[in-house]
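Narrative of accomplishments. A recurring question from our advisory board has been how the design workflow behaves on a single, concrete structure rather than in aggregate. To address it, we present the structure tokens for one chain from the evaluation set, followed by the sequence designed for it. No filtering or post-editing was applied between the two.
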């Protein structure tokens, strides 16, 4: 009887291990599906965000700043570090003479942009464009030293322009394809 109990105990342990292995496999596989679904959802959201940003970019080109503002604000409510939305919103704030807000979102764009950043809605918008937006914003609020600093980043020269020359240089850079 003792031998029979011992065999049954081994059998039960082996059966328990098999059941445990099956449960672990099911858990791993079901978690894998959840991660895949989650990844798919995140990817879909990113694609949706990119589409929204592209649509807002077209609206900006058409002059519909109010609708573009709403779309970019929506993107930023979900992804505050989105460089495209921040730089576009900075441009809208500049157009509306809301320089403090423009400075805030332009700085956020600058901090989050990689050195080789290129916008998803306009291939002509890049890291130098962010510097230009900051230069314009600093110029409009009267901080000519910081505006000069941003211009130096764009033209890669150590210049110290007078406010009048700085304004002309910013205008020249704005017309140029950076």
């Amino acid at each position: 009887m003792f031998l029979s109990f011992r065999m049954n105990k081994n059998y039960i342990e082996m059966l328990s291990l098999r059941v445990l292995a099956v449960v672990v496999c099911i858990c791993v596989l079901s978690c894998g599906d959840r991660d895949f679904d989650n990844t798919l959802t995140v990817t879909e959201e990113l694609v949706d965000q990119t589409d929204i940003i592209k649509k807002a970019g077209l609206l900006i080109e058409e002059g519909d700043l109010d609708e573009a503002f709403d779309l970019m604000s929506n993107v930023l409510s979900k992804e505050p570090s989105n460089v495209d939305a921040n730089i576009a919103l900075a441009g809208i704030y500049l157009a509306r003479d809301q320089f403090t807000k423009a400075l805030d979102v332009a700085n956020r764009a600058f901090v989050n942009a990689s050195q080789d950043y290129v916008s998803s809605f306009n291939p002509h918008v890049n890291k130098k464009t962010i510097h230009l937006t900051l230069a314009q914003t600093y110029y409009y609020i009267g901080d000519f030293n910081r505006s000069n600093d941003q211009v130096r980043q764009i033209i890669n020269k150590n210049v110290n322009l007078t406010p009048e020359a700085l304004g002309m240089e910013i205008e020249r850079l704005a017309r140029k394809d950076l």
